[in-house]
Design brief:
With about 210 residues, the protein is α/β, with parallel strands linked by helices. It is built from 8 helices and 6 strands; from the N terminus they run βαβαββααβαβααα. About 40% of the residues lie in helices and about 15% in strands. Helix 6 packs across helix 7.
Length: about 210
């Protein structure tokens, strides 16, 4: 059977998102399905920013950063579940493949819980975790996290050259990751930092001063 499969990005861009879209589209085409791209997340869906993709439409995407589909952090509920359900019915989508971080996970959960009110959501709703923060529930690893970690370690190696070349010089490096301490903790271990400060372990400026003095 041939199905209509739609792919979209929800949340912030992460390394590898475009390569993921490329793989999904080409694999789907190889299996004989109709592949659709939704631009700018759920907002793009309700605004008819949908395009049927063929093989060459994603050519070269694997080496491009950012999100070529565009992405929004707006969850499905904020855009409007009735509007999304109406579009799924209108476009006759048989599955949604949502690439993104916590907002993508939350959107899938919202649609799953709304299946009793909106039968259109009784289709495969797939969340592919893609966030440098590595904070998607249900998985230990997400697309983009490893690349971000390696970049942080490279930067730390360069900073260490300056720190080691002078006396009594200390660097405090801030990473991304929001409330998740994955990047800070793993980067500290990989680069040989003396301390890692994360949200889950509350700290104060005094703690920082004490560590620096030590």
């Amino acid at each position: 059977h041939s199905f209509n499969l739609a792919v979209l990005n929800v949340g912030a861009p992460a390394c590898g998102v475009n390569a993921t879209v490329r793989s999904i589209v080409r694999y789907g085409l190889c299996e004989g399905h109709n592949m659709f791209a939704i631009f700018d997340g759920f907002e793009g869906l309700v605004n008819n920013q949908v395009k049927n993709l063929q093989w060459m439409a994603v050519n070269g995407w694997s080496s491009v950063g950012g999100s070529l589909l565009g992405c929004q952090k707006t969850s499905a509920a904020k855009v409007g579940l009735p509007l999304i359900a109406e579009k799924i019915r209108e476009l006759n989508f048989h599955a949604l493949l949502i690439i993104g971080g916590y907002e993508a996970y939350l959107s899938v959960l919202q649609m799953y819980e709304a299946r009793s009110k909106h039968p259109e959501f009784k289709i495969p709703l797939i969340c592919i975790p893609a966030t440098i923060s590595n904070n998607v529930p249900g998985t230990e690893f997400s697309i983009g996290a490893d690349t971000a970690l390696n970049e942080i370690v490279k930067i730390c190696d360069k900073i260490k050259q300056s720190a080691q070349g002078s006396k009594r010089r200390i660097f405090v490096i801030e990473t991304m990751g929001g409330y998740c301490g994955y990047l800070a903790t793993m980067a500290a271990l990989a680069s040989g930092a003396d301390q890692a400060y994360i949200f889950k372990e509350p700290f104060t400026i005094k703690n920082l001063i004490d560590d620096v003095t030590h």
